[in-house]
Design goal:
The protein has about 90 residues and is mainly alpha-helical. About 80% of the residues lie in helices and about 0% in strands. The protein contains three helices and no strands.
Length: about 90
């Protein structure tokens, strides 16, 4: 590995969050991806893929993302217990 790639790798590792933030980062990514896919689907089902589709999706996403993030954070403990009760350890 040359010096430029090792320094770039070093900079990236200093930008990473501490592992104690894992539940929040997981919830953020999960909520963001799921809310976007659901907004794409629901907007298409309700108003079709006509002009302005992307604008309508982004407008719905602006509301759905924070709601989805809060929901993931709230139900995470329950889901973890359900998985533990369902999956053999």
């Amino acid at each position: 590995m040359n010096s430029s790639s090792s320094s770039a790798s070093s900079r990236l590792s200093t930008l990473k969050l501490h592992r104690r933030y894992t539940p929040f980062v997981f919830a953020f990514y999960m909520a963001g991806i799921m809310a976007f896919l659901m907004c794409c689907t629901i907007v298409a089902a309700n108003s079709g893929l006509s002009a302005g589709y992307l604008q309508r999706v982004l407008s719905a996403y602006a509301l759905a993302m924070p709601v989805a993030f809060c929901c993931v954070m709230l139900v995470r403990p329950l889901v973890a217990r359900l998985v533990a009760a369902t999956v053999q350890s």
